[in-house]
Amino acid sequence: MQTCDSTDNLKSLLYQYLWHALWIPRPTLSRRRAAYENPIPAEPDSQAYVPVSHDTTLARMSGILKGKVALITGAGAGIGAATARRFAAEGAVLWLNDLDPTALDAIRDETGGRGLAGDMSDSAFATHWVDEAAGQHGRVDVLYNNVGVSRIGLIGELSDDDWRSQQRLNLDTVFFATRAALKHMVRRRSGSIVSISSGAGIGGQYRLGGYAAAKAGVISLMETVATEYGRLGIRANSLTPGPTATEPLLDYLKGRPGGIEAHTADLNLARLSAVEEVAAAVAWLASDEASNVSGICLQCNIRSGSRRPT
């Protein structure tokens, strides 16, 4: 009868285990090369901006924000409204804001949320808005900073007012709401802050210098909050959605050479994002599903390079 050293037996069993545990079928090199050299062509008549279907009904949600008191700025339209709908479907208790009272009333009626209309770039109003949410609901669990506006122009052509308005609307709004929310989150040693930035904030973009500078500030601000308040149970993250199929962008692209296809050609997914896709990313970052995620900038279908089609 043939015998083997016990150490050799153990090594043999270990090698067999690792082989079966780690082996994953992969395409051959020739198939990989063919996939890169012959990508699947887009449909000739496709605008390539309509993503997969997004069902935001309660039946499809998992309740990851159930019972959370969630504050959303700029909730009246676009990504903000889509996020309000997603948060509501996930079970959140909503406290909303928009500069447009009519738009705010519409999204409040749709989602069952409450809130106040007003200018989040006004420090006093932003503080009052957050404090009122805490007063009515007893706490602030989630803050989503969604307010943001871009203006196009070369750096050398921006007026003082152009520059200041970009910082005020895109960065001051985030700072004022975040500072006010931290006071309430620190008391409970718990909270999640999510702020919308932009691909322009990562590498800068042509003719969007003021906007890019402000959005870079948003990323840095969230990283700093994460560093300063993480030990107190507060998470802070940003995300950078690429061009998203909102009505203002779609209207803008109608008059541009090449339209949507030219604008999306160098995006990582070669299409516009849907507002529901961005809302899903925000909901994840805001929820306890991302309980150990803090200080990151989540990139959502941005450009690999730091430029914008002219």
The side-by-side strand order for the widest beta sheet comes to: 3-2-1-4-5-6-7
> How is the main sheet built?
7 strands, parallel
The CATH topology assignment is Rossmann fold
CATH architecture: 3-Layer(aba) Sandwich
Mean pLDDT: 85
Number of helices: 11
User: Could you name the ranges where pLDDT drops below 50 across 5 or more consecutive residues?
Assistant: 17-50, 306-310
Using the alpha-carbon principal axes, give the shape.
Answer: globular
Helix and strand sequence = HHEHEHEHEHEHHEHHHE
**Which structural class matches the secondary elements?**
alpha/beta
Q: Report the strand count.
A: 7
Question: How does this model look, in words?
Answer:
The structure is a single chain. This protein is an alpha/beta fold. The chain has a single domain, classed as 3-Layer(aba) Sandwich (Rossmann fold), CATH 3.40.50. It has eleven helices and seven strands. A seven-stranded parallel sheet has the order 3-2-1-4-5-6-7, with helices on both faces. Strand 4 (about 140-145), helix 6 (about 160-190) and strand 5 (about 190-195) form a beta-alpha-beta unit. Helix 3 crosses helix 11. The longest helix is centred in the middle third of the chain and has 29 residues, at about 160-190. The chain is globular and about 50 Å long. The model is unreliable at about 15-50 and about 305-310 (pLDDT under 50).
Key terms for this structure?
seven-stranded parallel β-sheet; single chain; 310 residues; 7 strands; alpha/beta; Rossmann fold; disordered C terminus; 11 helices
